[in-house]
């Protein structure tokens, strides 16, 4: 029961309204991530400028869904529930263990999802470029959560990164083409 109470306490504490400095941390995290991830993603030919054109209502619906999953769901699980918040007095070594454990689970959850319940992600979520960027994303979310203690900051950061990838940097095209290719392979030829 103590573990459940601790996790519930972490959730409650993480829902505090972000402070003005927390918003600056979000902006700085986004800029630093972009400065690292964009050159890396373009150099690996994983990212390319290819904006998607959705009907505004479809785009809004997709953005709301992406806020819930993956952003809110993954940040609650991999940051808030697994990483001790800044208010818990733990040794740096114990904190580092939980942060590393959380990051490893976060990264491997993507190939597992692609191989089980998210076929659009297979094989993209198993490839080195995606996993490299996911690792940097997870590290950035960990740092943002640790500095702020807020769930909203890493959720918004994660959401922004996914939205930019999907709708501006060819992510949606990659996933759609992947599903289309799988569908074509399943369709009997006449």
From TrEMBL:
<feature type="transmembrane region" description="Helical">
    <location>
        <begin position="56"/>
        <end position="73"/>
    </location>
</feature>
<feature type="transmembrane region" description="Helical">
    <location>
        <begin position="124"/>
        <end position="145"/>
    </location>
</feature>
<dbReference type="GO" id="GO:0080120">
    <property type="term" value="P:CAAX-box protein maturation"/>
</dbReference>
<keyword id="KW-0812">Transmembrane</keyword>
<keyword id="KW-0472">Membrane</keyword>
<dbReference type="Pfam" id="PF02517">
    <property type="entry name" value="Rce1-like"/>
</dbReference>
<feature type="domain" description="CAAX prenyl protease 2/Lysostaphin resistance protein A-like">
    <location>
        <begin position="59"/>
        <end position="162"/>
    </location>
</feature>
<keyword id="KW-1133">Transmembrane helix</keyword>
<feature type="transmembrane region" description="Helical">
    <location>
        <begin position="151"/>
        <end position="169"/>
    </location>
</feature>
<dbReference type="InterPro" id="IPR003675">
    <property type="entry name" value="Rce1/LyrA-like_dom"/>
</dbReference>
<protein>
    <recommendedName>
        <fullName>CAAX prenyl protease 2/Lysostaphin resistance protein A-like domain-containing protein</fullName>
    </recommendedName>
</protein>
<dbReference type="GO" id="GO:0004175">
    <property type="term" value="F:endopeptidase activity"/>
</dbReference>
<feature type="transmembrane region" description="Helical">
    <location>
        <begin position="93"/>
        <end position="117"/>
    </location>
</feature>
<feature type="transmembrane region" description="Helical">
    <location>
        <begin position="23"/>
        <end position="44"/>
    </location>
</feature>
């Amino acid at each position: 029961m103590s573990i459940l109470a601790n996790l519930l306490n972490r959730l409650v504490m993480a829902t505090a309204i972000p402070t003005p400095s927390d918003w600056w941390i979000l902006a700085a995290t986004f800029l630093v991530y972009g400065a690292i991830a964009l050159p890396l993603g373009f150099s690996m030919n994983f990212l390319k400028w290819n904006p998607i054109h959705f009907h505004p209502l479809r785009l809004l619906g997709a953005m709301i869904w992406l806020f819930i999953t993956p952003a809110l769901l993954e940040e609650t699980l991999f940051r808030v529930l697994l990483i001790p918040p800044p208010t818990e007095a733990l040794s740096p070594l114990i904190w580092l263990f939980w942060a590393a454990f959380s990051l490893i689970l976060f990264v491997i959850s993507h190939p597992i999802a692609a191989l089980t319940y998210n076929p659009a992600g297979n094989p993209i979520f198993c490839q080195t470029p995606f996993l490299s960027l996911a690792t940097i994303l997870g590290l950035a979310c960990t740092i943002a959560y640790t500095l702020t203690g807020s769930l909203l900051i890493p959720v918004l950061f994660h959401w922004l990164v996914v939205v930019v990838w999907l709708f501006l940097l060819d992510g949606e095209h990659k996933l759609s083409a992947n599903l289309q290719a799988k569908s074509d392979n399943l369709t009997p030829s006449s």
